[in-house]
Design brief:
Strand order of the largest sheet: 8-1-2-10-9
CATH topology of the largest domain: Alpha-Beta Plaits
Helix content: 25-40%
Strand content: 25-35%
Distance between the termini: 67 Å
Order of helices and strands: EEHHEHEEHEHHEEEE
CATH class of the largest domain: Alpha Beta
Oligomer: single chain
Number of domains: 2
CATH architecture of the largest domain: 2-Layer Sandwich
Number of helices: 6
Length: about 260
């Protein structure tokens, strides 16, 4: 029993890594190599403040296509905010009003993820990206609860090759990577969520030396990374479970040559 398997279960999205454990009998060079490999494998699952963690959280809370609405809330000139603090206040007002609207309709408390962005320090064009539970007439409810501008873009959550949990998480965290927000605190996470949001489950276990990390049959493998040297190895895989996997294109029908 000399390998570590770490599994992260986010419903339709799964992430796993496999790496060698350090043994007391290992030579110094082997120990260094294994420490380096395990560090690299775990780095790929370091979920703090990353788009990967947002991706997993979106998956575990919104498990099927269409189970959430993805919206961009913008401000008109009349309601143009001065800074991030004012945007946050107005977002909090929207959250309270939206929750009350759902309660009045007898709907469950919505799960919501959001990020605040500004297009540039010069223009100060603030806007908010949200992903929110879908219950029915969501588009009208979202527009009704956002009194700060009529330019509100809304679409259903997609899980296909073009748009999915990965692309959505990267889109919601793009400004944190690309733009130096002049109002944000250094090291602050660029997105947040309501307290009722579920978190992915993490499990770590010891497995035999000959254990092979193989995703379930029929799943869609999103990433498959590995590294091996003379002393050790690590392997990390991310996949979508079959029920939410990207559909395969239909096979082209073979034409039969007709005899004349």
């Amino acid at each position: 029993m000399a390998k570590t398997l770490k599994l992260i279960d986010a419903g339709p999205l799964q992430l796993a890594s496999l790496y060698d454990r350090v043994k007391p009998s290992d030579a110094p060079a082997q120990r260094r190599a294994k420490h380096k490999a395990s560090t690299e494998a775990q780095r790929r699952q370091n979920l703090k403040n990353t788009a990967t963690y947002l991706e997993l959280c979106l998956a575990v809370n919104f498990r099927t296509p269409g189970s959430a609405r993805v919206a961009t809330l913008t401000f008109d000139e009349k309601h143009r905010p001065k800074d991030r603090s004012e945007v946050t206040q107005r977002l909090n007002y929207f959250r309270r009003k939206y929750g009350a609207a759902c309660a009045a309709e007898g709907l469950p408390e919505p799960v919501m993820f959001w990020c605040i962005e500004v297009l540039s320090a010069e223009s100060g064009r603030w806007h908010v990206h949200i992903v929110i539970s879908a219950f029915g007439d969501d588009d009208a409810r979202i527009r009704r609860c956002w009194p700060y501008g009529s330019d509100v873009e809304i679409e259903k959550l997609r899980v296909d090759k073009q748009k999915n949990y990965t692309t959505l998480a990267r889109y919601m965290t793009k400004e944190a990577r690309e733009v130096q927000d002049y109002n944000a605190k250094p090291g602050a996470r660029s997105w947040s969520h309501t307290q009722n949001a579920r978190k992915p489950a993490v499990e770590t276990m010891t497995v035999p030396d000959d254990y092979k990390l193989e995703p379930p049959e029929g799943c869609t493998v999103l990433t498959d990374e590995r590294q091996t040297n003379e002393w050790t190895s690590w392997h990390a895989v991310k996949w979508l479970v079959p029920s939410c996997a990207f559909p395969r294109p239909p096979r082209a029908k073979r034409r039969r040559n007709r005899k004349s």
